[in-house]
């Protein structure tokens, strides 16, 4: 008996040593910070050829890696569903938006056959935190704290306001409503400062980071800004920085941006601007030019203010001594938005002269419109909600000094937001579950970017899929098959993306067999991923 007790004692000592070794290993795992912009165009930020002051994002690029061929899902809810789960949007149950329920693939929430990054990392020993826009389920049981986030501050639905809290979109701290709809929300962390969502979400990100410093666990922070999504609302001091900058209009801006992108190597030297149906700037009356240039000023100011907030987050990581071993990813949920027509939503009373009143109207009171969106998505075709490049191409900046030791480089790796979960699982040495509570969890659709982060290894011939509002696409290697509003055989367009991605040279008529093969491959995926049948063809209760 004594011998058995002695053996048991030795066994417990060994197990304790192994547990300690495991904890020490866990302590050395990287922290993870994911930052998402909302409705920002591919080439808006300076380090992707833009004409907006983004020095803090630029510094991340200088010390990190810029991906030139990374994709989102084309719209806010589907991208966030895919980004958070590592599945295509319909596989996660949220193939459209968070209203209406058309059954599998088109729920207004994440289904139970997926897990979020927060759930996986929490179970792997990470502290999980989120600030900002959730937008993947707004009813109880679907909130961030129900899907793995231990700490949350933000809004469950859209955030179509910067200076106030809209009806139906109150602010929550964990499960508690802390800011009801109001025209004058209190900035609780900084009562002396005006409420501005971009700054407030950054404030809470900093608070969460300070609290995480008291925890021995590595941390995961997801900050989801609502900038630069409409309405056009920004602080006066940021707007003033762009006075006169856009007076030459969108035609000149597109040309200037393309030249910078070529010089940077973001796009190939052969790239030309995609066709545009926007009116020539010089054809517009001068009063209209002034008002439209002012709208672009505000849009740029929104991004500049977001950049300043990102700079604060990076400074906090540096202050806490965690920056070197933090993987930080920055990207956008979709391309720039053309909603509101050619010149955007614009109430007649909204003019530069009365911006003091206009800036707090919120909702659909103002937007950039199709013409400026084309400039934001330079050199690509179309916008948010479409799956041509202008809708789905996003900048992706990866910053991780401990691993990315040679900064300022470009990666040509083709990737998609489905890769973010796989990357987080990989770097965190976490386990992705096959089932939870006897519920099967769908296998990951993405691939880890870690090999590319380490030595820029390229995974060739990726196969990626898209669908949103019957706009469909598949990319296999350098070939992309894409369609507008339906998948009838005659609607498919085929493009060689090897050197030029502006989708201007449709070769579908010359490559009928390739079109048929890729279309069949897309259909097979769509049937398996809950894309088909289309929502209007379903019978749901």
From TrEMBL:
Report the residue ranges that make up the Sulfatase N-terminal domain in this protein: 30-428
Q: Which Pfam families match?
A: Sulfatase (PF00884)
| Gene Ontology MF term list | arylsulfatase activity; metal ion binding
Keywords noted in UniProt: Calcium, Hydrolase, Metal-binding, Signal
Q: Is RNA-binding tagged as a keyword?
A: no
InterPro entries with a match to the protein in the record: Alkaline_phosphatase_core_sf, Sulfatase, Sulfatase_CS, Sulfatase_N
Annotated protein name in UniProt: Arylsulfatase
Gene source species = Rhodopirellula sallentina SM41
């Amino acid at each position: 008996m004594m011998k058995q007790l002695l053996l048991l004692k030795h066994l417990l000592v060994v197990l304790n040593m192994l547990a300690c070794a495991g904890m020490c290993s866990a302590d050395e795992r990287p922290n993870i910070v994911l930052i998402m912009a909302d409705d920002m165009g591919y080439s808006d930020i300076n380090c992707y050829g833009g004409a907006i002051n983004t020095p803090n994002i630029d510094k991340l690029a200088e010390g990190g890696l810029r991906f030139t061929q990374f994709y989102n899902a084309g719209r806010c809810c589907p991208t966030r569903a895919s980004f958070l789960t590592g599945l295509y949007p319909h596989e996660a149950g949220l193939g459209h938006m968070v209203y209406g329920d058309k059954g599998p693939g088109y729920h207004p929430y994440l289904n139970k056959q997926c897990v979020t990054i927060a759930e996986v990392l929490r179970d792997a020993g990470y502290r999980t935190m989120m600030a900002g826009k959730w937008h993947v389920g707004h009813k109880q049981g679907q909130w961030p704290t129900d899907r793995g986030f231990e700490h949350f501050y933000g809004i469950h639905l859209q955030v179509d306001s910067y200076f106030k809290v809209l009806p139906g979109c109150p602010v929550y701290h964990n499960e508690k409503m802390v800011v009801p709809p109001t025209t004058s929300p209190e900035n609780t962390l900084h009562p002396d400062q005006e409420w501005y969502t971009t700054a407030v979400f950054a404030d809470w990100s900093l608070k969460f980071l300070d609290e995480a410093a008291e925890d021995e666990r590595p941390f995961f922070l997801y900050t989801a800004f609502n900038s630069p999504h409409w309405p056009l609302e920004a602080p006066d001091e940021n707007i003033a920085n762009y006075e006169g900058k856009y007076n030459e209009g969108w035609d000149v801006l597109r040309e200037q941006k393309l030249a910078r992108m070529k010089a940077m190597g973001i796009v190939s030297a052969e790239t030309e601007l995609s066709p545009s149906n926007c009116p020539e700037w010089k054809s517009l009356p001068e009063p209209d030019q002034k008002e439209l240039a002012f709208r672009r000023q505000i849009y740029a100011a929104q991004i500049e203010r977001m950049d300043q907030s990102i700079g604060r987050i990076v400074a906090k990581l540096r202050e806490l001594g965690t920056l070197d071993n933090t993987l930080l990813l920055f990207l956008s949920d979709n391309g720039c938005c053309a909603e509101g027509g050619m010149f955007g939503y614009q109430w007649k009373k909204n003019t530069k002269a009365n911006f003091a009143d206009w800036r707090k109207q919120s909702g659909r009171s103002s937007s950039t419109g199709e013409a400026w969106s084309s400039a934001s998505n330079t050199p690509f075709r179309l916008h948010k909600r479409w799956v041509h490049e202008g809708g789905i191409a996003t900048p992706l900046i990866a910053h991780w000094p401990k691993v990315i030791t040679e900064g300022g480089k470009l990666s040509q790796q083709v990737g998609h937001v489905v890769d973010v979960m796989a990357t987080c699982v990989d770097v965190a040495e976490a386990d992705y579950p096959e089932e939870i509570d006897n519920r099967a969890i769908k296998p990951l659709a993405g691939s880890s970017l870690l090999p590319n982060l380490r030595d820029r290894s390229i995974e060739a011939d990726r196969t990626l899929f898209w669908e949103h509002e019957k706009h469909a696409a598949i990319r296999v290697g350098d070939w992309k098959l894409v369609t507008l509003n339906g998948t009838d055989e005659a609607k498919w367009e085929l493009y060689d993306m090897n050197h030029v991605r502006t989708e201007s040279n449709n070769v579908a008529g010359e490559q009928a067999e390739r079109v048929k093969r890729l279309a069949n491959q897309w259909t097979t995926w769509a049937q398996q991923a809950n894309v088909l049948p289309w929502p209007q063809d379903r019978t749901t209760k």
